[in-house]
Design brief:
Blueprint: H1 10-28, E1 35-37, H2 40-49, E2 55-56, E3 60-62, E4 79-80, E5 84-87, E6 103-104, E7 107-111, E8 118-120, E9 131-135, E10 142-144, E11 151-152, E12 155-159, E13 166-168, E14 175-176, E15 179-183, E16 198-199, E17 202-206, E18 214-216, E19 228-232, E20 239-241, E21 248-249, E22 253-256, E23 263-265, E24 272-273, E25 276-280, E26 295-296, E27 299-303, E28 311-313, E29 324-328, E30 335-337, E31 344-345, E32 349-352, E33 359-361, E34 368-369, E35 373-376, E36 391-392, E37 396-399, E38 415-416, E39 420-423, H3 434-440, E40 446-449, H4 458-465, H5 519-522, E41 523-529, E42 532-536, E43 543-548, E44 556-562, E45 567-572, E46 579-583, E47 590-595, E48 606-615, E49 620-627, E50 634-640, E51 647-652, E52 663-666, E53 671-678, E54 681-687, E55 694-701, E56 707-712, E57 717-722, E58 727-731, E59 738-743, E60 755-762, H6 812-815, E61 816-822, E62 825-829, E63 836-841, E64 849-855, E65 860-865, E66 872-876, E67 883-888, E68 899-908, E69 913-920, E70 927-933, E71 940-945, E72 956-959, E73 964-971, E74 974-980, ...
Parallel strand pairs: 1-3, 2-4, 3-5, 4-6, 5-7, 7-9, 8-10, 9-12, 10-13, 11-14, 12-15, 14-16, 15-17, 17-19, 18-20, 19-22, 20-23, 21-24, 22-25, 24-26, 25-27, 27-29, 28-30, 29-32, 30-33, 31-34, 32-35, 34-36, 35-37, 36-38, 37-39, 39-40
Antiparallel strand pairs: 41-42, 41-60, 42-43, 44-45, 45-46, 46-47, 48-49, 49-50, 50-51, 52-53, 53-54, 54-55, 56-57, 57-58, 58-59, 61-62, 61-80, 62-63, 64-65, 65-66, 66-67, 68-69, 69-70, 70-71, 72-73, 73-74, 74-75, 76-77, 77-78, 78-79, 81-91, 82-84, 83-84, 83-90, 84-89, 85-88, 85-91, 86-87, 86-89, 92-93, ...
């Protein structure tokens, strides 16, 4: 196409142009520039001065004025191309004269109008407005802001309008380039601001006293230059959705004084605050997640948030010179993670009056506090350890903290510059850290009181600092007596939290303490009396025989317990021929070990063994006895070998009147002996085992001859039992004073035998199910939790073989209940409590409904109506109570009515039949028999006659699969439980018992094997164990007055009728699990991961497809993560070697990857690794977003670096290859841009980002080759291959993939152009959507870029000025053109024209621009056209249509438009020259370019357009005489 410049002479052109201007002026009747009106007279004269003027080309400025009252004379104005300014008009009350305005071009400014009461600009639109400023209008009550302004390049400011109560409009506003300010109003409700998606500089909404409801700025984003967000003093505001997408604030975030604010969200992307973070005075319960903030510049202040709970996480915050941190008066706050990266505070650190604060962490980097440090009013038991804090320049205040016990969290603090205040910290017992001690030794002001322990007050603290403490010695009293920071630290050795003064009876065992069943109650005193083994309760002296010792001896003395063997050891014949024996404390079985004799001399020399004791200090047995060596009757201490009885002399005893060891008692730390100077005068000693030396504790009268001794080491009590009268005494080892506990037996028991030995040892109780360790083996109820689900049979496990059935897990136990009929009511009863509730009224009703049972095959209750007079079989729906009559119960033969009474009926799970016990007139009158009942007809078949009972009545039947039970009664209150043989009717008695109620009904729980019985009249529920027939009461189901005194006539154990919930259990007991929660039938329920239960193609494991859905419910829409780690069968990897003898070798089965430079027998060589992953399982239309290769070091010879770096590279493989045949000679090699991998000499594993190379993997490529950058000798990398036997070591490729989706825009009017405000993201265009957003009115198909003016031609005047022509649109009264640098985001420069051309000035030479056009027609501006590029001139003016100069080149393209065939370019030029051309699309992207030589005259070149999509393109030619651009259209 050849654009044409009209050849108009200079003078003629000037005349023509003047005529055009005059015509425009006369037609418009509007002033050409701005209009300023300062008096009412000027306002009123406007229509006469400018008749018919509706469109002002400039701005309208009204004021300042003292007499303008109204603007009624401006009512004809429709558009203002410039701005509207109404300022400083003292008497103007409204601007209704401007209500006809539909367009304002640049700005709206209305301010300082003292009397103005209302503004209505609701219908105003604009396309490039700069700002709206409504300010300081003190009587303004209503402002209807423009609805149709999509953007403000600068700001929106509505402030200091202190009477403003109504604010509407701003419907289309989505972009504010500067500030959003709404302050000082009485507005109750803001317009919906949720459509705003960009604010450039700041957000300031403050002092709106009546504002309620919500401010929603959640979608607002900004650049990194936003200054601040300030939401302040809006006392009735309830909800603020803060911007989610603002990464930084250069100044501050302040949300304070909004005392009704309950919801605060947003701030998702916020990471940087240049100054302050302030959130005060709210009722918010939960803050947004602030953990992403990593910088706050000056201060953090979070205070007076009365409902704030949970945790504030500021752990990632860093700063350089922060002023202060204040977290104050948040009474429900439980957790604070303070900044970890703030080294200094120039002012205060104040964490105070957060009275629920239990978790306090952070401040790891803090070294200096320039002001005061105050932590007060918390319940946290631990404060962060401030290892780096060395100085506090003002005061240290620690007050009213209920949890902390010490100040050890200030280990490095060395300076306090002001006051020291440590007060009212109720658990603070140690504050004698160095800095505090230094401070109180000086003259500084201090307050220390109201604490505890060593920090009780200043005097106690001073003693602690001087090393004396409060008492100096730690005792067990709950106070840090020795001021070492630990409380009772010597009295909780096992760390179970219980000290010996709190009752821990075994402070070496953390599982033994008050409240935990353990060793304290597991121990008793064992005694030998004659040949009986007796156990004695240490607290009372009560005793009982455990077993008879077998075989027996004349005497069994010196008893002790050895925990290593779990045996009692004793001495038989201890005076005549002492022999060591062991005794099993469970059975009394005795084993002879050997005579007790010294090893040397070998002759028999042991005369008497007085006592024996196990020593926990060394695990040996010690004995006190008399020998004939080294001297006769020498009283000495020996050790006894527990395996053979050999004795080893340790020491002679000395220091007593007799030096006898009548008794020995040892703990781990203390050794005691008992001796007597007379038969009734005794002494208690400590004994030094190494020397035999005795140290007296106490001497006392003991009113019995002889005694035996043992010790409870857990409670430190010595027990003594007198030989003869067997009275139990206790002695405290600390003072040796005895006290009586109780008599174990009378002197006549055990035939007068003496107590010869006692030992403190574990009890031998059998384990029963009671929540205690009865058998003292350290396990509780271990025999009663067979399935290991943590529930025993005594705490409710109804199936101890199934770990999925237990209390709290919905299952068969809770699925069943007892159904009962009481008159015409169907009642359900809880088997565990007897609690009952009515399910339904049985309909139709009968006089009696008895003999009830549950038939699972029909899922119905069966019963007998009129069971005495005319027994009839009925079924009852257990859910609704609906009753269905089946038929009279009669025998098949004879056919006459012969069934008199049905006593009971029961379903038999063994054969699936109904059985009944009843009386008939056949074969004999009132014969008590067993029948089967046909559930479909009621017909009865005789099975057997009942025999073996006093009455032979089947008052109740209860059947399991294996056992059949019957209930009968000989008297109204005397009952019997039997087993019954259904074939013969024979009964076998289990138990007979009194039953305090007349009549009963019976059923059985077959799962837990419990028979349930309910009395007819008072309806009390009883349980009976079938094994022994012993009944026990469970509970009353109802009082006797309920149900009008009706009797319970039938009960049945059957499934409950619970509703199904989604929890993996069969709640409604229908055999189906969660059946109501898989609506789409895909096998996945909502509670096991189905994220769309209405779509069967959406569930965990489903194939992900591009449909905008999360098909596999992994939380990722239109994508996923795939892991490839092939093995020997499907892996593809091999290395090739350059060394001559190895060039032909293959390595496809190697277990290693090799990338190295090496030598083989002195010959250098290189090894490269080829590998590939099969990505064919990825969806064919998926794109790879990220790919990571993980390889594991093989360390064959170790990754060497002997001669330099082993840096390497990955490249795409250039051709196909096979792992079994590739070698150095046939390798395809690498291609493309390599990925450099830095040197790695550590031999470690590698994780490599191969995203940019991922497309090289099959099926789209041939894989990668890995080689060294420099293959000189001895540089290597070794990794495991896909043939490695360990799966985890094989190479692994992790791919993150997604479908290529894009944004589509609604095209409601079908003109091919989309609405920028109505978008959807999808892989394919939904019906009615397009890929552009260029429509300005999506409800009018006549308004779009195609119907706007299009590019026509361009005339170059000089390098900085051109005239651009566009197509004329009939009926248009105005045009607009806008332009900017091509491809930039610069603001458009805009100009209007009454004709289809416009000259542009002040352009940059040799520069690419883009331009768009639109027209004004029928009172509406059309959309902007597509962008057209043009280039300003460089050296010499050029026009696109030829011209007067013969040296100006001409260019033509044909065919144009083209249908995809090649395009010929004809170039005529008078000069031979170099010629450069480019072809670009509408965005300015270069698609083709070339440089060639032109000859003077006619030239031709070709452009290939076969690959160009339909659209508009520009051919640009750069010639010596300038630049020309020609449009090319491809269809």
């Amino acid at each position: 196409m050849r654009p044409i410049l009209l050849p108009i002479a200079r003078s003629a052109f000037s005349t023509f142009f003047l005529i055009l201007l005059l015509t425009d002026f006369i037609a418009a009747q509007c002033p050409s520039g701005n209009v300023t009106l300062t008096t009412q007279a000027q306002v009123d004269a406007f229509p006469s001065n400018y008749p018919g003027c509706t469109h002002l080309p400039g701005s309208l400025i009204i004021g300042p004025s003292t007499d303008i009252l109204n603007l009624n004379s401006l009512s004809n104005l429709v558009e203002i191309a410039g701005g509207l300014s109404i300022s400083s008009n003292d008497d103007l009350t409204d601007i209704s004269g401007l209500n006809g305005l539909s367009f304002i071009g640049s700005n709206i400014s209305i301010q300082f109008n003292d009397s103005l009461q209302s503004i209505d600009l609701a219908n105003v639109s604009s396309t490039n407005m700069q700002y709206i400023n409504i300010g300081d209008n003190p009587n303004l009550e209503t402002f209807h802001a423009p609805k149709f302004v999509p953007s403000l390049e600068n700001y929106l400011s509505i402030r200091s309008n202190t009477s403003l109560t109504t604010l509407t409009g701003l419907d289309d506003l989505s972009y504010i380039g500067g500030a959003l300010i709404i302050n000082d109003t009485k507005v109750t409700t803001f317009p919906d601001l949720s459509g705003i998606n960009f604010v450039g500089i700041d957000i300031w909404i403050a002092n709106n006293q009546n504002l309620t409801g919500t401010i929603d700025l959640g979608h607002v984003s900004s650049s990194t230059d936003m200054l601040y967000i300030n939401i302040e003093n809006n006392p009735n505001l309830e909800i603020f959705h803060a911007p989610k997408h603002i990464p930084s604030l250069q100044n501050y975030l302040s949300i304070r004084g909004n005392t009704s604010l309950t919801t605060l969200t947003g701030l998702n992307d916020l990471s940087y605050i240049g100054e302050a973070l302030i959130i005060n005075d709210t009722k918010v319960t939960t803050f947004p997640d602030l953990s992403g903030i990593n910088f706050v510049g000056t201060d953090i202040w979070i205070a007076n948030n009365q409902n704030l709970s949970g945790t504030i996480d500021l752990s990632s915050v860093g700063s350089v010179n922060m002023l202060y941190i204040k977290i104050q008066q948040n009474p429900l706050l439980t957790g604070l993670h303070a900044p970890d990266f703030v080294p200094t505070l120039s002012d205060n650190l104040d964490i105070s009056q957060n009275t629920s604060l239990t978790t306090f962490r952070g401040l790891n980097s803090l070294s200096t506090v320039g002001g005061s440090l105050q932590i007060a009013g918390t319940v946290a038991s631990a404060f962060p350890i401030l290892n780096n804090l060395t100085s506090i320049n003002q005061s240290l205040i620690i007050g009213s903290n209920q949890g902390i016990s010490n100040l050890n969290w200030l280990p490095s603090l060395s300076y306090i510059g002001g006051v020291l205040q440590v007060t009212n910290n109720t658990n603070l017992s140690n504050c004698s850290i160095d800095v505090v001690c230094d401070f109180i030794s000086g003259a500084g002001t201090r307050f220390v009181f109201g604490n505890t322990g060593c920090c009780l007050n200043e005097t106690v603290l001073t003693n602690a600092c001087n090393g004396t403490g409060s008492s100096g010695i730690e005792i067990c009293d709950g106070i840090d007596n020795d001021c070492d920071g630990f409380i009772d630290e010597d009295f909780d050795q096992d760390g179970d939290g219980f000290t010996t003064c709190q009752g821990d009876c075994d402070d070496q065992n953390p599982f033994v303490h008050p409240g935990a069943e353990g060793i304290c109650e597991c121990y008793v005193i064992y005694a030998t009396i004659g040949n009986e083994l007796v156990v004695i309760d240490p607290s009372t002296g009560d005793a009982e025989t455990v077993a008879t010792i077998n075989p027996g001896f004349t005497t069994i003395a010196g008893l002790t317990y050895h925990p290593g063997y779990d045996l009692l050891f004793a001495v038989t014949e201890h005076i005549t021929n002492p022999t060591l024996v062991s005794i099993d404390r469970h059975t009394g079985a005795l084993t002879v070990i050997g005579e007790i004799q010294q090893i040397n001399p070998s002759v028999e020399d042991m005369v008497v063994i007085e006592s024996m004791e196990y020593n926990p200090s060394d695990g040996l047995l010690y004995a006190g006895g008399s020998t004939s060596f080294p001297s006769n009757v020498s009283k000495s201490i020996f050790t006894i070998n527990s395996n053979n009885g050999e004795a080893t002399f340790i020491s002679p005893i000395s220091g007593s009147c007799e030096n006898d060891a009548d008794g020995l008692a040892f703990t781990a730390t203390e050794k005691y002996t008992f001796d007597g100077c007379t038969p009734t005068r005794k002494q208690l000693f400590k004994i030094d085992l190494a020397t035999g030396q005795l140290t007296a504790i106490n001497e006392f009268n003991f009113p019995n001859i002889g005694a035996q001794m043992t010790i409870d080491p857990f409670n430190n009590i010595i027990y003594v039992i007198a030989h003869l009268d067997r009275e139990l005494w206790g002695i405290s080892p600390s003072d040796g004073i005895p006290y009586i506990i109780g008599a174990t037996h009378t002197s006549t028991e055990y035939n007068g035998e003496l107590v010869r030995g006692i030992a403190f040892a574990p009890k031998n109780d059998p384990e029963i199910c009671d929540g205690f360790d009865n058998d003292c083996d350290g396990l509780i109820d271990e025999d009663f939790d067979q399935d290991g689900d943590g529930y025993t049979t005594c705490n409710g496990d109804c199936d101890d073989q199934n770990p999925f059935v237990h209390p709290g897990a919905e299952g068969i136990c809770e699925c069943y209940a007892i159904y009962a009929t009481i008159s015409n009511e169907l009642v359900v009863i809880d088997p565990s409590t007897g609690d009952a509730e009515t399910v339904a009224t049985i309909n139709p009703g009968f006089t009696t409904i008895a003999g009830m049972t549950y038939h699972p095959g029909y899922d119905l209750l069966f019963a007998v109506t009129e069971h005495i007079t005319n027994p009839t079989l009925v079924s009852i729906d257990r859910q609704t109570g609906a009753l269905n009559v089946i038929g009279e119960i009669q025998q098949t033969t004879p056919t006459s009515q012969d069934m008199v009474v049905i006593e009971s009926m029961e379903y038999n799970p063994s054969d699936g039949l109904l059985y009944a016990g009843g009386s008939t007139s056949f074969p004999s009158n009132v014969s008590k028999s067993i029948f089967t009942i046909n559930p479909n007809s009621g017909e009865a078949t005789l099975i057997s006659s009942i025999s073996g009972s006093c009455e032979n009545d089947a008052d109740g039947l209860a059947f399991t699969t294996t056992e059949k039970y019957m209930f009968d009664g000989c008297t109204p209150t005397r009952k019997q439980l039997f087993k019954i043989d259904l074939v013969t009717g024979q009964l076998t008695g289990i138990n007979e018992f009194n039953f305090p109620n007349i009549g009963a009904q019976m059923t059985i729980d077959p799962f837990n094997n419990i028979i349930y019985v309910i009395a007819h009249l008072d309806r009390e529920l009883w349980g009976i164990s079938p094994s022994n027939g012993i009944p026990y009461s469970i509970g009353s189901t109802h009082t006797s007055t309920e149900y009008n005194g009706e009797l319970v006539r039938g009960i049945a154990f059957a499934p409950k009728n619970d509703p199904e919930i989604c929890d993996g259990f069969d709640n409604d007991c229908d055999g189906l699990i969660d059946e109501d929660f898989d609506q789409d039938g895909d096998g996945y329920t909502t509670c096991n991961g189905d994220c769309d239960d209405q779509n069967p193609f959406v569930h965990p494991g489903a194939e992900e497809i591009c449909d905008g859905l999360d098909n596999n419910c992994d939380g990722i829409t239109n994508g996923g993560i795939a892991v490839f780690q092939p093995g020997t069968e499907d892996g593809k990897d091999a290395f090739v070697q350059s060394e001559i003898s190895r060039q032909s070798s293959t390595s496809g089965n190697s277990e290693r990857w090799n990338i190295l430079g090496w030598t083989w027998d002195g010959s250098p060589g290189r090894v490269r690794q080829y590998f590939d992953f099969d990505l064919s399982n990825l969806p064919t239309d998926a794109s790879i977003d990220a790919a990571t290769l993980e390889v594991t070091a093989a360390n064959w010879v170790a990754p060497w670096c002997l001669s330099g770096s082993n840096s390497s590279k990955l490249e795409e493989v250039s051709g196909a290859w096979d792992e079994q045949s590739i070698n150095w000679l046939n390798q395809p090699g690498g291609s493309g841009v390599p990925l450099t991998i830095p040197a790695n000499c550590s031999g470690g594993n590698m994780t490599i980002d191969v995203t940019n190379l991922a497309q090289a993997f099959s099926p789209s490529g041939n894989g990668l080759v890995w080689s060294l950058d420099n293959g000189n000798y001895y540089r290597a990398l070794y990794f495991y291959s896909s043939d490695a036997p360990e799966i985890e070591k094989r190479p692994k490729l992790t791919v993150e993939w997604s479908f290529e989706s894009q944004i589509w825009y609604a095209d409601n009017d079908g003109d091919g152009y989309g609405d920028p405000t109505s978008i959807i993201e999808d892989c394919f265009p939904p019906l009615g959507y397009v890929d552009n957003f260029l429509d300005c009115d999506d409800n009018n198909p006549d308004l779009n870029p195609d119907t706007s003016p299009q590019w026509s031609s361009i005339v170059y005047h000089n390098p900085s000025s051109v005239t651009i022509y566009w197509t004329t649109i009939n009926g248009s009264t105005n045009y607009s053109i806008r332009y900017r640098l091509q491809g930039s985001n610069d603001p458009w420069a805009e100009a209007t024209s009454l004709r289809a051309w416009r000259r542009l000035f002040s352009l940059s030479p040799c520069t690419s621009y883009e331009v768009q056009f639109r027209n004004y027609k029928g009172g509406v501006w059309n959309c902007w056209s597509q962008s057209y590029p043009f280039i300003t001139g460089c050296a010499k003016s050029i026009n696109t249509g030829g011209g007067k100069g013969s040296d100006v080149s001409s260019i033509q393209l044909y065919p144009n438009p083209t249908n995809g065939s090649d395009v010929t370019v004809e170039i005529s030029t008078s000069l031979a020259q170099s010629f450069e051309w480019t072809l670009t699309d509408l965005s300015g992207k270069t698609l083709q370019s070339h440089e060639t030589e032109l000859t003077a005259g006619f030239n031709q070149i070709s452009i290939h357009s076969t690959d160009l999509p339909t659209g508009v393109y520009f051919f640009k030619a750069v010639l010596t005489d300038g630049i020309q651009v020609v449009k090319l259209v491809v269809r």
